[in-house]
Amino acid sequence: MRVFVAQLNPTVGDMEGNTQKIISALEHAREKRADVVVFSELVLCGYPPEDLLLHPAFVDAQAQYLERVVKASQGLFAVVGTVRRNPSAGEKSIFNSAAAIQDGRLLGFVDKRLLPTYDVFDERRYFEPGKTSKVWEYQGQRIGITVCEDIWQHAGLVGFTNYACDPVLDLVAQKPDVVLNLSASPYHFDKPSMRVKVCASTSRTLHCPVILCCQVGGNDQLVFDGYSLVVDQEGRLRQVAKGFEEDEMVVELGALPAPCHFKYDAIHDLYHALVLGVRDYMHKLGLKKGCLGLSGGIDSALVACIAVNALGKENVLAVSMPSMYSSEGSRTDAELLVENLGVELLNLPIHSTYGALMETLAPALQGQTPDVTEENLQARIRGTLLMALSNKLGHIVLSTGNKSEMAMGYCTLYGDMCGGLGVIADVTKAQVYALARYVNRQREIIPASTISKAPSAELRPNQKDTDSLPPYDIVDEVLRAYVEDFHSPEEIASFYKIPLDLATDLVRRIHRAEYKRRQAAPSIRVSKQAFSAGRRFPIVQKWK
Amino acid sequence: MRVFVAQLNPTVGDMEGNTQKIISALEHAREKRADVVVFSELVLCGYPPEDLLLHPAFVDAQAQYLERVVKASQGLFAVVGTVRRNPSAGEKSIFNSAAAIQDGRLLGFVDKRLLPTYDVFDERRYFEPGKTSKVWEYQGQRIGITVCEDIWQHAGLVGFTNYACDPVLDLVAQKPDVVLNLSASPYHFDKPSMRVKVCASTSRTLHCPVILCCQVGGNDQLVFDGYSLVVDQEGRLRQVAKGFEEDEMVVELGALPAPCHFKYDAIHDLYHALVLGVRDYMHKLGLKKGCLGLSGGIDSALVACIAVNALGKENVLAVSMPSMYSSEGSRTDAELLVENLGVELLNLPIHSTYGALMETLAPALQGQTPDVTEENLQARIRGTLLMALSNKLGHIVLSTGNKSEMAMGYCTLYGDMCGGLGVIADVTKAQVYALARYVNRQREIIPASTISKAPSAELRPNQKDTDSLPPYDIVDEVLRAYVEDFHSPEEIASFYKIPLDLATDLVRRIHRAEYKRRQAAPSIRVSKQAFSAGRRFPIVQKWK
């Protein structure tokens, strides 16, 4: 039996476009003489549809588009992710389902049983859990069908949750010959290799191969990395589809290729996740061009490289906005970078606007001493200039702040935080350096001096980030331990051997900056726990 | 039996402060010779705690604070809302519980069974549902204990959900003499009167009085209105606590006062919800002073009035920032308003900064014709000036955009959208007018000309809102029907008798502005469906 794995990049809500992709994949499957075709979770509407699911018209439309897919399934057994109405009285009125289709007929549905309601997932908000696990017979083979989370708990890899049932165990008595899993499993740093473990755990329990079909592409803040895969009945990896692009994979069940290793380079993948995140955010919105402020520092340099890879150099506009505090080195670094990238550079000095604002404010601020106000003014003039270019020329502003800064609130609301998309807002400072080295792996694109100099916002004379912050390696440790792993300051101080006062102060700073992050540009989520998608934190709270 | 209802205003995460409030209420209850004391849902940690619940230290702390409450309960039977660990293996590791306490001993817990996971509620993200409904006996009386949602489904007033069990019916066999309900039920327009129906439905089924204890106060974007209440065994309202402030109510079960009506003025309540929302947002963050841009229009005039009521006139700074397009009428209206309110007015013209920005941008924008860019520049200069005042003087910027504008995207990101709190961002334009008339009910505070003139952003000569938008009454109708009630454009066109093209266009505009709203200041939620809290909508989607 030949299984065709359709790793597609659906757009949320684009039922017409997604249906065309699905029908086209069915044609390819026939061309490849496949017997079975598997699609990803909710491929018909794209994942995650969020509150579109609350619109009855949105749910009803899926049944109509599914009919078109059913009609196009001649000669095949196909499994398609779709929303369907719950025909019984249940807590919720819809299921997250896999439609089983054969030869132009809809055979029925398998409803997702384990509904993740943690992190970026809100499935209990919308869906009723499925009640049974099912196997369909086709060409004498017993095909077990599962949807994403259904096989995760079995591998012990689910967070914050311990479901009452185990769909994998429930399949044991049904003796499947192969298990298909329809997935929409968002990328985060180091996650792709987890999926091999998940599938291996299922295959060892059920003594059959497992084929995972993953969604690929960016939808809002989430990036889906693809990497659909096949493990054999002993849990050994046999085939992997491409990462970060659409792919089609034919699996000959009786003749799997030799066991292989999952070739995984975490920084390479992180880079490509960001590129795909930018590209899909823009292109799915029908936008082509991006602009960004280029300070000469490492953050904006990295974002410029990602933007060029995502949008093409002809669609990226870099803007240098020097002030009285901009160093000569920063200017030449910025110029060198745009030369290396071949992008256009605009030069818009901020002195005169700064002067006009200070004069306007003078009567109100008489007798006050300079403080962060003057620094923020510079950042906000830059934000205003970028937004004016964006309004007039149609370039979307790409925001360049990193996660470590966002954690500490070391960023200016309505200033450097302006933008349609926060490209590296979920990337720590240490990862920024690693990504810059990755960009330069073959030749120097980001100037070496950009990478080697001490980070500075250049908003006052001789400013360094370390004037206001502890070294970034400590910031990053506390950030990871507190935000990603929910450890207490006491645990963090003891584990990392830093003073308790420092750990507590950094945690307080993380909380104090919540109000800023709430107004940040949407950002591409690439870590286990971003500040944006998947974290719901009160601004007004007195816990820490 | 005398029941003391402690309608408190807890702060999320402030376990120390909340515990002191609880212990102080226990003392008052003894002074009033009460037998039983009932608190609101999760009163110990404040509602909603959101992802603080994922921090083990946060959960553990509640058990410790609960011990202090238990020790302080001499001579009383008390029911206190708290988080507790799930002692069994369950899908989630904590319960949303009511601790039953008697005379210095912890008797046990009643766990909330119906966990709302829709709208602003995410309870399945955190909590395991309770399995049984319970009655405790005290002084020969059988006291049924329920937590908030537990009694809502019985009245048929739950949205998007149809729970599998009914805790009210499960209490029938246990024959309670009275039912207590611990609530944290956020205000929205017209909601308080719904709670009377909810309690009446339970009391009629169980043939006993129901006492509802509600949280009061603002926490982040939610306002809790209080109005704790008592219905008798026939569902007639007998007692109501104050709205929008802390209150203590003694209920003599054997001698309830005569049946009464719920005195409810929707616009009065809306106004007070906004005032409380502003006051608690600021004061719980330890902030006193607010500032706002005063344009002479009705939106900023209303926000100024709300701010004065919430913070005191000495803590409100109004800022006039005239441009070449500001009308004389707007200036005199603004001056008259600040005189009526007794607040300080600063005058910061934006001409010179606008000139400097246009000059800086000239080389980049050569040959382009004026468009929305120039309008946004003016709004962004104003935002920048307000933020500079905020940075230097410590006033939090109060954002003045209304819901109808936010729906249409008729607002400038990083311009008039700047602010720490969006005061009227969930108030429609029609409600803004009604609130302005409410403010003026005794004497003219908001100048009559502010109310009577046609709305204008004054960002170009003779501009009117209707140049860019359909009349606000149509905008508001579509907004309500689409966003609050999930109707399709076809249904809306037919129901309101407007052209389908217009309905579709307005729905598209609502979706297109999603990216702006995502970066809006947090706002006070006062409608059934706000754009902020309780709505999760993709930016990148092609449904409409």
Blueprint (SSEs and pairs):
2 copies of one chain form a homodimer.
Chain A lengths: L1 E6 L7 H17 L4 E3 L17 H16 L5 E9 L8 E9 L2 E7 L11 H4 L7 E5 L2 E7 L19 H6 L5 E6 L8 H15 L3 E5 L1 E4 L2 E4 L3 E3 L5 E4 L6 E6 L13 H19 L5 E4 L4 H14 L4 E5 L7 H14 L2 E4 L3 H15 L6 H22 L2 E4 L3 H6 L12 E2 L6 H11 L8 H5 L12 H4 L3 H13 L4 H8 L3 H13 L1 H4 L27
Parallel strand pairs in A: 1-2, 2-3, 7-8, 8-9, 15-16, 15-18, 16-17, 18-19
Antiparallel strand pairs in A: 1-14, 3-4, 4-5, 6-7, 9-12, 10-11, 12-13
Helix pairs in contact in A: 1-2, 6-7, 6-12, 7-8, 7-12, 9-10, 15-17, 16-17
What does this structure look like?
Two copies of one chain form a homodimer. In chain A, the strands form four sheets. In chain A, strands 5-4-3-2-1-14 form a six-stranded mixed beta sheet, covered by helices on one side. The longest helix of chain A has 22 residues, at 372-393. In chain A, helix 1 runs parallel beside helix 2 and helix 6 packs across helix 7. Chain A is an alpha/beta fold. Chain A has helices spanning 15-31, 56-71, 123-126, 167-172, 192-206, 266-284, 298-311, 328-341, 351-365, 372-393, 403-408, 429-439, 448-452, 465-468, 472-484, 489-496, 500-512, 514-517, and strands at 2-7, 36-38, 77-85, 94-102, 105-111, 134-138, 141-147, 178-183, 210-214, 216-219, 222-225, 229-231, 237-240, 247-252, 290-293, 316-320, 344-347, 396-399, 421-422. The mean pLDDT of chain A is 95. The first copy, chain A, contains 18 helices and 19 strands. Chain A folds into three domains: 2-264, Nitrilase/N-carbamoyl-D-aminoacid amidohydrolase; 271-460 and 513-517, Rossmann fold, CATH 3.40.50.620; 470-511. The interface between A and B is large, with 93 and 93 residues.
